[in-house]
Design goal:
This protein has 763 residues and is an alpha+beta fold. The protein folds into 4 domains: 145 residues, Aldehyde oxidase/xanthine dehydrogenase, molybdopterin binding domain (Aldehyde Oxidoreductase, domain 4), CATH 3.30.365.10; 195 residues, Aldehyde Oxidoreductase, domain 3, CATH 3.90.1170.50; 181 residues, 2-Layer Sandwich (Aldehyde Oxidoreductase, domain 4), CATH 3.30.365.10; 202 residues, Aldehyde Oxidoreductase, domain 4. Helix content is 26%, strand content 27%. The strands form 7 sheets. A 7-stranded mixed β-sheet has the order 3-5-1-12-9-10-11, with helices on both faces. Strands 8-13-14-15-7-17 form a 6-stranded mixed β-sheet, sandwiched between helices. The protein has a 5-stranded mixed β-sheet with strand order 19-20-28-29-30, sandwiched between helices. Helix 10 packs parallel to helix 17 and helix 16 packs across helix 17. The longest helix has 28 residues. It is globular, with a radius of gyration of 27 Å.
Length: 763
């Protein structure tokens, strides 16, 4: 794409920030409608049980209470939440009802909705609702699930919803002849996206117009619109979902939750606007959780360190139901365990276990964070056993440029295959080591300095992005020359307005300041796919390129009619249409707006890739770990805005460090959440990890889209868990400490060191 502006590639400050940092943003809590009521949700405090009765009479008698809605108020069949991704028929049993229907399966499941004149009145009314639940034996962990003494879905006959299988080559035969085989067990804890602003909705039903409007949409507004319209028996055109500013998403916000139906349905039933905003405890017990996997993996190699195969089993605790994207993490664990390395033989099974916990969904780097921890630990262990330098063993097994496109494992039962699209993995690997000063820092390995043993680690990763099948845009050139771009992509804090304006400015060769980006609301374009899987730049940006060409063709047609020439004789540049010695500014071509619609179609993923290195200090006496230096180098094909990309990378790494060291959603054996506030659930702060460096390069543009860009919103996080575990093991190598579980909390590191000192088995 040859252009005169070249906004693409500039480190431009985000246009959104001027509005947001002045407090001029509009979040769902800021949205208020005339005559508005407030909703509060009664949630089950029992993890597993049969609903015997719900007595609402006393609560309804309170002044200011307008309605209390339970399952019986939503017809003979309570709507269920369908799967957005991998919608397999065998998973329909596990779809979540929008409100508990006869049975509760996790603490926090909606049982009733109270609608009142104020939130305070609604909360008071909760105390007057009589809820009688007959407890059933809870299924609180893998052992409970496999024992089958209690079943969440009796008709299924098992607590295993489905098992994914990733396969390549012939793993059984390969392992029989391998020189080296090692089997280990790993565990990654349950944690989740903790965005600053909790979820919420304002819904309004216009009875005269037969129109439902919902404020608070995010991520996948068009899919949620279709789901909501079907559940409420409305025509699609009768429902509008309006996007407002959001305080973070990270994969969790914007999926279809019970509240996505309950609040609009309540507004239609009571005939007045209804507002609901969750509090932090609600968020922690009801928004999607993530990770929570146990895994046993075998690793095979030759004596000289050539990787041969991976095989094993993963058990993913998916919680009480399989929600809209709940299969993504378990599937990714199986399919992407090989990462950026050559493994010709793969056999990984990944079982989704149902338990009496909050359902799981996607959280930044779903499945890939977990599987990188497992794989990178196995590589370091193999290097140690084979007496091969861990840098060299990685370098010789990285997929080579000449092998591209390189096929990853196939997956069933939702058949899927994908190829790594392009890349020079060795070049990025070597760049990271140079920038990190690996050789110089290696002199510190194992040394005790000021009470801390020093350790290093290096690891490589791949980052899938740009899920299809398409994205839509509408471009409107206004009289006067201003351009408005309406998009199906959504904003979840990734700087969408800035990045898309850069792309549009170059594509149309007009001033960046003349462009307005409007996104994420179903009233803007006919269809849209939103923001997930690091897709917005690739899919939305490419749709702008397609739309720009159509708009330029329309401009040429309008100008040709004015000039009396053929459209092909008209040239465009400097915001003017020109024929010979005559020219017309774009803004004077028509008294009416010039408008086109366009879409970009693509079903091939992009694959960004990179390498990270870390230097830590570990105090075995307290288990405290200091992250002394951290370096990330990633190739994203083509950078649109280096400044926003840098922010994404650093933020992602910090999020990964939070998961590696701090964050943990803990349940007891009764299915009760023990970490329901930030007093118990620890989060990283700005002072925790002061030295993080990120370098982004443009070595291999993606061949699958006209921008050449690769999705890059998640890569920084993916290798962090494995990197930290390997660095700690390196620091405490004199004790042979081998962390196999996350989080790497001080008590856990201290206990590993104590056990190693005492000669206690780490198994």
């Amino acid at each position: 794409m040859k252009v005169s502006n070249s906004y693409i590639g500039r480190p431009m400050e985000r246009v959104e920030d001027f509005r947001l940092v002045r407090g001029a943003g509009t979040y769902v809590a800021d949205v208020n409608r005339p005559n508005q009521l407030y909703a509060v949700i009664l949630r089950s405090s029992t993890a597993h049980g049969i609903i015997e009765s719900i007595d609402t009479q006393a609560a309804l008698a309170l002044e200011g209470v307008h309605a209390i809605l339970t399952a019986k108020d939503f017809g003979n069949t309570v709507p269920r939440i369908p799967l957005r991704l991998q919608p397999l028929p065998q998973l329909e049993t596990f779809h979540q009802p929008v409100i508990a229907d006869g049975k509760v399966r996790y603490v926090g499941e909606p049982v009733a909705v109270v609608v009142a004149e104020s939130q305070a009145i609604a909360e008071d009314a909760l105390e007057y609702v009589g809820l009688d639940i007959e407890p059933l034996a809870p299924v609180a962990n893998r052992a409970h699930a496999e024992a089958k003494k209690s079943l969440l879905f009796e008709e299924h006959g098992s607590n295993v919803a489905i098992t994914w299988k990733a396969f390549r080559g012939n793993a059984d035969e390969a392992f029989k002849t391998a020189d080296y085989v090692r089997r280990e067990r790993f565990k990654v804890q349950r944690h989740a996206a903790m965005f600053m602003e909790p979820r919420g909705f304002v819904a309004e039903w216009d009875n005269a117009a037969g129109k439902l409007t919902v404020w608070g949409a995010a991520k996948t507004a068009w899919y949620n619109r279709r789901t909501l319209a079907a559940q409420m028996g409305l025509d699609l055109e009768a429902v509008d979902l309006i996007e407002v500013d959001v305080g973070g998403g990270f994969g969790s916000r914007g999926e279809f939750y019970p509240e996505d139906f309950l609040i609009p349905a309540a507004a239609k039933i009571v005939g007045r606007p209804v507002k609901w905003v969750e509090d932090r405890r609600e968020h922690m017990m009801s928004a999607n959780h993530a990770r929570d996997v146990e895994c046993e993996v075998e690793f095979a190699a030759t004596r000289d360190g050539k990787f041969i195969g991976l095989r094993g089993e993963a058990w993913c605790d998916t919680g009480a139901y399989v929600r809209t994207n709940g299969s993504v993490g378990p599937r990714n664990i199986a399919q992407y365990m090989s990462g950026p390395y050559c493994f010709e033989h793969i056999d990984i099974k990944s079982a989704m276990l149902t338990t009496n916990k909050t359902p799981c969904g996607t959280y930044r780097g779903p499945g890939r964070y977990e599987t990188d921890f497992i794989r990178e630990r196995m590589i370091d262990l193999a290097a140690q056993d084979l007496n091969i330098d861990r840098v060299e063993i990685r370098r010789r097994n990285l997929v080579a440029d000449a092998q591209m496109p390189y096929p990853l494992a196939s997956i069933t039962p939702y058949d899927s295959s994908t190829d790594l699209d392009s890349g020079d993995y060795q070049a990025v690997f070597d760049r990271c080591l140079r920038e990190f000063k690996w050789e110089e820092k290696s002199k510190l390995r194992g040394q005790l300095i000021d009470g801390y043993y020093h350790g290093l680690a290096v690891g490589s990763f791949i980052e899938g992005g740009a899920a299809g099948p398409k994205e839509e845009v509408r471009l409107v050139l206004e009289p006067g020359g201003l351009l408005t771009v309406y998009m199906g992509s959504s904003s979840v804090g990734q700087g969408l307005e800035t990045i898309m304006a850069q792309i549009a400015a170059d594509a149309m060769e007009i001033s960046y300041e003349k462009i307005t980006i409007l996104h994420g609301s179903t009233s803007y374009v006919k269809d849209g796919y939103g923001a997930y899987h690091s897709r917005s730049t690739v899919m939305g940006g490419s749709a702008i390129l397609v739309g720009a060409e159509k708009l330029k063709d329309l401009i040429r047609e309008k100008a040709a009619a004015r000039f009396g020439c053929a459209p092909t004789d008209v040239s465009l540049g400097e915001e003017r249409a020109t024929f010979r010695q005559s020219s017309i500014p774009f803004g004077e071509l028509s008294e009416e707006p010039l408008e086109i619609e366009a879409e970009f179609l693509n079903k091939k993923y992009t694959w960004a890739y990179g390498t990270q290195a870390a230097h830590v200090g570990v105090d075995p006496g307290t288990g405290h770990v200091k992250v002394l230096d951290y370096m990330s180098v990633e190739d994203v094909g083509r950078m649109i805005n280096p400044l926003t990309l840098h922010g994404q990378a650093i933020g992602s790494i910090v999020q990964g460090l939070g998961g590696a060291f701090l964050e943990h959603l803990v349940y007891d054996d009764e299915g009760q959440l023990l970490t329901g506030s930030f007093a118990d659930y620890l989060m990283p702060t700005a002072s925790d990890f002061p030295k993080i460096q990120s370098i982004t390069v443009e070595l291999k543009p993606c061949p699958n889209n006209p921008l050449g860009a690769k999705g890059a919103g998640e890569g920084g996080l993916i290798p962090v868990g494995g990197l930290m575990a390997n660095a700690i093991a390196d620091a405490l190598s004199h004790l042979n400490v081998q962390p196999m579980e996350l989080p790497l909390s001080p008590p856990k590191i201290w206990q590993l060191a104590e056990n190693a000192s005492a000669g206690v088995s780490l198994a």
